[in-house]
Amino acid sequence: MVIAGVCERLFLRYRKHHGSVTRAIGSARTLSDCSTLCEREADRYCRTFSFRRSRLQDNCILSAVDAADLDASRGHLLSDPEWHLYDNVRGGGEDCRGGYFPTGSKKMRFCPHVGG
């Protein structure tokens, strides 16, 4: 079944956005909440986001940089064992497999790890 909307996909484990590619920092109780923050800003600037579960404040970093354009050699990423970096997959369907997370008025799907 193909589901229209947005899917958050784990792109890189143990990485977060560097300040040079950060557009906003928010607070989210869950990964789903952080994904919702990104979705609400998607038309303006959120293409990828970093999230950590260990704290409830300043734990959701939004970035306008697409996952394919993030480059560690250019300083876009920082290593950090508490953080994981996600990208949004538009349209869902074949790119999204897994459980559903209700987020706001839309359903989001969590996708399995695809990055390094």
Task: Walk me through the structure.
There is one protein chain. The protein is mostly beta strands and about 120 residues long. The protein has a single domain, classed as Hepatocyte Growth Factor. Helices cover about 10% and strands about 40% of the residues. A hairpin with a 2-residue loop joins strand 6 and strand 7 (about 105-110). The chain is globular. Residues about 95-115 have low confidence and may be disordered.
Summarize the structure.
This protein has one helix at 31-41, and strands at 6-17, 24-26, 48-52, 60-63, 77-90, 100-103, 106-111. It is mainly β and 116 residues long. The chain has a seven-stranded mixed sheet, covered by helices on one side.
What distinguishing features does this structure have?
116 residues, mainly beta, Hepatocyte Growth Factor, seven-stranded mixed beta sheet, 41% strand, disordered C terminus
CATH architecture: 3-Layer(bba) Sandwich
Oligomer, anyone? single chain
Strand order of the largest sheet: 2-4-3-5-1-7-6
Order of helices and strands: EEHEEEEE
The CATH top-level class label: Alpha Beta
Morphology call: globular
Q: Low-confidence parts, pLDDT < 50 over ≥5 residues?
A: 97-116
Report the β-strand fraction as a percent range.
35-45%
